[in-house]
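Researcher: Re-running this chain for the archive, since the previous output was lost when a drive failed. Same request as before.
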Amino acid sequence: MSIYISDEEKLKHPYYKLMELRGDALETELTSWSRLELIEWLSWNDRNGVYKDEESLREFGNTVSKEEAIEIITRQITEA
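Model: Regenerated structure tokens:
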């Protein structure tokens, strides 16, 4: 089942709004988010990824740091 989200609705949602940012604006926004907010975005954007602490500890033996999360998000947005 596919759920369609209009462009207007996307612009109101912070996760979609983030995807429209680039450069300094993206970096500034990401650094204002908490580590947990960044991990939630990563989990939302990449459902097959391993980002949440419990999953990451089990799979890799460590957790995603805030800096790593920012790097991953920046890459996912700019390379999309």
